[in-house]
Structures are given as structure tokens and as C-alpha cells.
Amino acid sequence: MRNFPVNSLLDHLSRVPLDIPFGPQPDFGPSPGPFIDTGPCNPIYIPPLDRHFRYSCMNFARSQASPRKSDCNPRARKEPREQMNMLTAFIDASQVYGSTLKENRRIRLYRHGMLQVTPLDLLPNDKNSTCVKDGPGDYCFLAGEMRVNEHPSLSTLHTIFHRLHNQMALGLFELNPNWSDEKVSMSHVITFGHTLIPSKFTVGREKIRLFRMFNRPRFVLRDDGRSIGKFCSGLMEDHVQRYDRFIVNDLSDLLFQDRDNISMDLASLNIQRARDHGLPGYNEYREVCGMHRIKNFEQFYREDPERAVIFRRVYDHVDDIDLFPAGVSERSLPGAVVGSTFACIISQQFRNLKFGDRYWYENQNRPMAFTPGKGT
């Protein structure tokens, strides 16, 4: 199951600013029916008699749009709405070191290029975070990315990278004792998965429900920091769910459940966020990836009758089908986890990340690379 925290860590290379606070919120009142809103709040309305939720809508804050020319000049050509990324655009370990100088300064020790740790070699205290503190000894973790406290397995991976940095920094300082703290510190800076996540995690001899650990660092803090090793062992031993269209209830019903039992649905959030960002529908991506468009539900039924029956209950036309539910319900390619559409998107994305990054370690003539033997 080790791909779950890794997927989360990669996913946290981007973070869009929201127009209003995002998270579980009290009921907003009865649903007004068909809902179209261009404002910052675009709640997901919940139908009556839902199998879990007893309130009428789920909080959803729209992503802030980046400035457009038409905002300043009404005569300028209209441009599509685009979202801002508050983080960096590369796989650059900004989750470890932060995406801004201010974030980086908060976690540095300013000695031998090391990052701050507690006496138990755990992540330092973030006094500004709002994780759930169940006991007097609990505190929220500080890392290069603010979502470090979302789940203990993610906190564990952050801790491992944190420790790895300090180990490498000390090694570099021993080889180059004349290097300054700044030079040592900077010399070695280095979401389909939701259907794979199980409802229970092995931590030592325990099996703990996923939803009980959201935003609760106490599961890492207990046992004098030895829980890091227990989480690592559990992540290596536990099996992921089979890749399919189903998501465990801990994510579809109990996501980020608070003390008032207000929770969220991850699948609904994924679909709504794609609509908020203006992502095209499933058919558009099929065409971009070199596959034929599905023209009607009859054709869909001949190719995949089980999916066709389900989507026909929800959508009026095949062009309305959203990317996320259609993508996760595709049959896996031979020897692969995902189906053809997601395989196409993922491969193109990682190709762009590799060849669009001048610092990528496999690219020739990259700047600031170690010379042969420098780091040995």
C-alpha cells in the first residue's frame, strides 16, 4: 500500500487558493434545485434520503481564478478562467523544503544545513496549524507543505524525507567542513489512487480505521515517536484495494469527519473540482488520447454494458459524462493499474514534468548538478 502516501505527496505539488475556507461545514439549508453560481461558494447539493449524509449540501469553495486581461480592460478579448497554483510546477521536493523563502526559513535549523526536528527526531511543531488535538501532548506538524497533517501515513513520509535531508546534510558537511550552512542546505534539495485506498491501516498490532486518523498527528506522536516505524511497516505489508470504481466509505462518507460528525465525500469533491476548473468531459479526453468518441449510450452499452447502465441513470448524454467517474471505472490495461484514458493522461503529464524541467536529473547540461565524485 506504499503508493498511497507517495501519491498524496506528489499530488501536493500543487495547491490552488480558495475564495473562502474549505472543509466540513454546517448545513447550508435546503437545496434550491438546479444550481449555477459564479461566486466563490458552489456547494454540492445532497439529494434527500442519501445513504449517509443527513444534511442537504456539502461545502465546496471554488478555486481562485488568476487575473485576466478583461479584468482590467473590458474591451480585451475574453479568456478562459484559469486557476492559480500556489506551489511550484515541478517535482522538486517543495513538500519538504517549502515553495517560498518564508516557508523554507520556518523549517531550517541554520546549522550544518539541517532542518528542525524534535528531540525524538520528529517533525517540529506548527503553532499556526489547525489539526485535531485529542490530548495535551498533541501538536501539529510543520513541514514544507501545509497538508502534512492530513493522515499519519503522509506525516510518516514527510518525516522520512525530513530525516533523509538531515542525514545527507551532515554527510556533506563532514566531506566539506568549510561549506556554509546555506551552501549545505541548498546542495541536495531534491489523485486515480483514491480507489486503491483501504478502510483500515496496520499500525503495529492494531488495525485502525482510515477516517479516525484524518488530521490527527497523535497516531504518529504516541510511543515516543516509534510509531513512524510502525506506520512504515504497515504501509509495506498492507494490500491496496483492487482498482475499480468503488471508494471505501471512509472517503466517500467520512472524509475529514469533525467532532460534530460533519464530513465530506471525496468522489463528489473530485467531480466538482474538475467542473470548477473547466476540465472537458470523458469523451473529449478519449479523442485527445487517440480513441474514438462514444456517440450514444447504445454504443457505450455494446462496449461496456455495466458502465453504460450506471452512467445512463445519471447523465442525459454521453458527452456529459465526467472524467473522474468514467476514468476510474475503465478496465485496467494489461499489466497496468489504470485504464486507457488515465494511462494516456498520466504518461503525458509525467513526460511534461520530465522534459519541461531543466533541473531534471536525467536531462543533459542541467544547472547546479554535482560534478562526478562531489557527493561521494
Automatic annotation (TrEMBL):
Signal sequence span is none
Q: Which UniProt keywords apply?
A: Glycoprotein, Secreted
Its subcellular locations are: Secreted
Q: InterPro entries, per this entry? A: Haem_peroxidase_animal, Haem_peroxidase_sf, Haem_peroxidase_sf_animal
UniProt xrefs under PROSITE patterns: PEROXIDASE_3 (PS50292)
Q: Does the keyword Secreted apply?
A: yes
Keyword Lyase among record annotations: no
- List, alphabetically, the SUPFAM superfamilies matched: Heme-dependent peroxidases (SSF48113)
According to UniProt, the name of this protein is Thyroid peroxidase-like
Which organism is this entry from? Aplysia californica (California sea hare)
